[in-house]
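Sanity check

After download, print the first record. It should look like this:
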Amino acid sequence: MPAITNIGDLKRIYERRVPRMFFDYTESGSWTEQTFRENTSDFDQIRLRQRVAVDMSGRSTKTQMIGQDVAMPVALAPVGLTGMQHADGEIKAARAAEAFGVPFTLSTMSINSIEDVAEATMKPFWFQLYTMRDGDYVARLIERARAAKCSALVITLDLQILGQRHKDIKNGLSAPPKLTPRSIANLATKWRWGIGMLGAKRRTFGNIVGHVSNISDASNLSAWTAEQFDPTLDWNKIAKLKEQWGGKVILKGILDAEDAKMALKVGADAIIVSNHGGRQLDGALSSIRVLPSILDAVGDQVEVHLDSGIRSGQDVLKAMAMGAKGTYIGRAFIYGLGAMGQEGVTKSLEVIHKELDTTMALCGETSIERLGKHNLLIPQDFEGRWQA
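Expected structure tokens:
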């Protein structure tokens, strides 16, 4: 295997090894994919200030996210269908994150269940909650996360209505994949993936099948999920969910300063500036572009994290230097998982850590806490000039 020096190397292997519908699920956005593209390209507009003749010995990337010690300010984001990218994908990603010393976030729409991941790991992980119309199911889901000793509940706010993702519709995305002439032809070329999936613990949504009445297999699952995302979610419901959980709550999907202020009012422990990886509202600004306005509104009163667009350790440094207290990777670790399983997730973390550590040193800093806007060159009109 050729040397892996960056996340792009893992992505190329991933594309060769994983069925097209699951590659497209990861590597796409909604509608025209403008926001999906700008999540990464906007990072390129920010430049770094090199500093020299600074003692670089003893530097460290260690810090904290919501009071939890982390080896670097990077958590694994919740990604649905992770167990379709590689057999037992959530378990393998969680183990890699645990060994590396960063948080893992399990999606409601995971293949491996909360209990599967808890049984396979030693340390608490975070659980991401989608709010559903079925309040009894949501209450039981929260209780299951509590029983598994999850240390934070990540409530996603931007999926009340599913954004239109053209590739997923055209591919007939499902778990397990529907067998059509097109999918069979593609699956036949992914023998390594197929052999792995034959031995997988699960091949459909482990947090749903067997936990919802009348849902026993994938045939009636897609209809249920399409109807279940709760369009009535509001700040009162979010406050009740926080009270029901009783532990640390992170609110994911904040893209506006006014919503950040509302998250502060309901007592969030942290907010994640995120546009769902460009998979919901196409035409919205990238996460890194709206980060400054959200920090101006609430930054000294609640931890502000950033998700969507992180592909390198330099991206992590730029977000932290702008004022974020943590970042999340989704696609970057999925590339590694699909390419090489648990070893690939570890490799993605190693790549990002090395880039972060080296860049921090070349910017003249020895710790995450010392990063700031003095390390960056930010275009004057970076946030955009918009009519009132």
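If your output differs, re-run the checksum step. Summary of this record's structure: The mean pLDDT is 95.
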